Fold this sequence. Notes:
The complex is a heterodimer of chains A (204) and B (315).
Chain A: E1 3-5, E2 10-18, H1 25-35, E3 45-49, E4 53-67, E5 70-78, H2 86-93, E6 98-104, H3 110-126, E7 136-141, H4 155-162, E8 170-172, H5 181-203
Parallel strand pairs in A: 2-5, 2-6, 6-7, 7-8
Antiparallel strand pairs in A: 1-2, 3-4, 4-5
Chain B: H1 3-19, H2 23-39, H3 46-69, H4 78-87, H5 96-109, H6 113-123, H7 130-143, H8 147-160, H9 165-182, H10 202-219, E1 223-229, E2 239-248, E3 251-256, H11 261-265, E4 272-280, E5 284-296, E6 306-314
Helix pairs in contact in B: 1-2, 2-3, 4-5, 5-6, 6-7, 7-8, 7-9
Amino acid sequence: MAIFNFKKREIECKIVYYGPGRCGKTTNMEYIFKTFKKQVVGEMVSIDTEGDRTLFFDFLPIGLGKIKGFDIKVQVYTVPGQVQYRSTRKLVLKGVDGVIFVADSLAVRREKNMVSLKDLQHNLKEYGLNIFKIPLVMQHNKRDLAGQGFPIMSVEQMEKDLNRQLKVPSFPASAIIGQGVGATLKECLKLTLVSFRKNLQLGR
Amino acid sequence: MNIAKQIKTLLQEAELYRSQGLLDEALVKYHHAEDLIRRHEQLKNRLNLIDAVSKKIRRLKDEIQRIENAPKKPEVSTKIQDLIKKLFTFTPNLNEDARALEGAVALAKFGQFKRAILEFKALLKRDSLRVAAAKNIIRCHMALSSVDDAVAEYEQWLSDNIFLPNQQQRLWIFFENVLNKEGIDKILPQAKMFPHDVKDQTYEDDRLKIEEVKIEDEEDLDINSIGITFERGSLKEQIFEFKVRFQLGKVLSLLISGREKDLIENFKVGTTINDVQYYSNIAFFNGSGLITAVKKIKIGPLRGDYCVDIEAAIS
């Protein structure tokens, strides 16, 4: 949950990259860390294990500057994608304000995408959050792999599989070359801030 | 496509998946290729090909094995542990003690048991957290499979007399339950009896009164949400968290959607759920809960949903 500090005029929120193992969540974050130097306000922390798999989480603090006099601080996390880290994923998701679901475009990962999205829905629900209501953006990653001979799914297929009911903004991306990374994050931040504003208005 | 071409494509795909770290997918492709090669005896260099692909499969299997055997929650550096404590202490406006407890619990949740034990040990000095800290130390030792260390620690606490008699007894019951759950046959040194069971109550009585007040305070805590882990049934070992709709003393009412049939079936009136986490504004507590009522809501916008009452027993 976002932390509003009215005394310091500061808002701190949490964005989580979610998705199946090896879909490119950490790659997204690495690109943000390398490219958006102005916004990055600390070191990227990555805890990985054998085979470069994220173990607990990746963490990157960024700052968006001032919006309406409030300093906006964002904590960006990735979750470990492998199925066996379910409890860690749930822990990292706690207090989330906005989610970026990174789907793998590889045809062989179709089912894993769907299982991971279901897992996201389940974990959000356990925190009393609704996947249809939380600021959520979808990214269809690894579009570049088509050129390397991999069978990949069409965007239409992925939208049908994953976004037919959710109808959230989605972006094709190739995180390894940075394509679509910034647009995905920006959209998620925008949705998250709009959601804050709505909630604040409701709370008045 | 001719067979040679099919095999070549499969091997290329396998390499591509391997380069993406998708080892299981790569393995499937290699097996498929190997199978095709074995089935077509007319292939040139067939035996060499089988040998080469088999080697790749072996190496891949080793790699998969190595990843699977890597510790799931290895100890990380102190710097990362500090970060975990900082990032995963969620409850705002905590006092120093409660924050320290939440930080240590976060460490344990991320499998940093050795550091967590050190932090919990420091919390044994704080009156309000002593029992919670002790229970978590036992849990951490058990998670590290060091039952003997847990028992030794417990015996040390008894001999140092750091717990009040009723706290000792609660701790003994808790530890006994933990050991029973794990199927470990260990005889724990008995805790002191409750002072009201003891004839000579002169000094102990005063201490008991203080402790009784403390327990009442704990019982009157406002609980915001609870986490339940089912021990049996279709949802065995699954964790569910619920917001508390309202609270009357120790009885908490939860609202469960009528669509959650599996969940509702697991709430049976009169049964006790032994693994419950109670979250208040200041900290969270472990305990058990007795299901006292499961009622279907018959009118209003929540019609069809269920109201489940749980009587909290915070340890």
